Structure to design on (173 residues):
């Protein structure tokens, strides 16, 4: 929890001098850096009302301009939206019986996983791949998204992701 608060405070400090209007003007001119900053601001509600729909739209714009990392951000925004919509009153994500491996995950656990993935944590990205591959909890099974997450984790040095990709025939030794 302390880590989340620190990240939040750091985000506020980083974006304290950001002028949303000037960022939007730069984004409209096609600046990927401005688009990604704006997306992050809206995704996390930094100085503005949190707006995941707007954040996703900005990430999509970045993808269209050639930023492949924004694809992961879109997946994480979608996962966050799904988690927000599907938590029970006791703050636990609804899971099916066969999903015993993730039965103790709470909304906060998944949010922490998303935060770590956004920071480039290869293990968090790999875990999200597993969640998408198997369709755990509120996350619908999406093999393509899982492979994409495994590829990202592999590019960051994940041996587990490398093994999965080898088994899937995506990479060869």
């Amino acid at each position: 929890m302390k880590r989340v608060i620190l990240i939040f405070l750091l985000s506020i400090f980083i974006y304290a001098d950001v002028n949303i209007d000037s960022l939007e003007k730069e984004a409209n001119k096609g600046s990927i850096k401005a688009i990604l900053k704006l997306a992050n601001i809206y995704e996390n509600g930094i100085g503005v009302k949190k707006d995941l729909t707007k954040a996703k739209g900005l990430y999509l714009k970045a993808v269209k301009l050639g930023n492949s990392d924004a694809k992961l951000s879109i997946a994480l925004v979608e996962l966050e939206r799904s988690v927000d919509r599907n938590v029970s009153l006791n703050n636990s994500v609804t899971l099916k019986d066969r999903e015993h491996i993730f039965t103790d995950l709470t909304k906060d656990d998944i949010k922490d996983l998303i935060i770590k993935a956004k920071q480039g944590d290869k293990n968090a990205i790999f875990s999200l791949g597993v969640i998408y591959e198997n369709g755990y909890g509120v996350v619908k099974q999406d093999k393509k998204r899982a492979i994409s997450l495994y590829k990202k984790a592999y590019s960051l040095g994940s041996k587990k992701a490398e093994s999965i990709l080898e088994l899937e025939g995506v990479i060869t030794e």
Observations:
- The first helix runs from residue 2 to 14.
